[in-house]
Amino acid sequence: MKKVGLLGGTFDPPHIGHLMIAEEAYTQLALDEIWFIPSYEPPHKEKTTTDVSQRINMVEEAIADNDHFFLDTIEVDRLGKSYTFDTIKLLNEKYSDIMFYFIIGADMVEYLPKWYRIDELMGLIQFVGVKRPDYVLKTDFPIIGLNIPIMDISSTMIRERVKKDQSIKYLVTPSVLRVIKEFHLYESN
For the chain, which residues score pLDDT lower than 50? Predict the structure, then answer.
């Protein structure tokens, strides 16, 4: 059975931290592929101001040079709020020959009890929690813990740096940086 890791998010913008998490999960769990799933509208965050087509473009650019990274637009195609339960249910129906691993940050692990239909979701997919030094990966749910190199980068930080006209070189891939500059994303004016 094929093993696929799923990494969801707004990817506003995707950064090297996302790529490193995906690569570490791919390697440590001996996965066949990693699918990046941009959300149209995440239920736990404010609506993103960056057009979804731009976010998809940036993900495509970020993962273009990795032959085991793929883009899946299942949540964007569905529009509206993206609930993991609905996404995983659809993926399991469409790909009965794939074992999915849902990769989340340690900060999200503590919120799992509040997730939509979490008890049912736990029966549909294997969760993988990426450990961070400032979070304890403590949960009653069966989660695989993943140690990765420490990298304190966030999309929020990148947007703020662009707004202040500070460099984001080495925080995003060169191709994502080109998209941000070309379309003047995240600039203050």
Answer: none
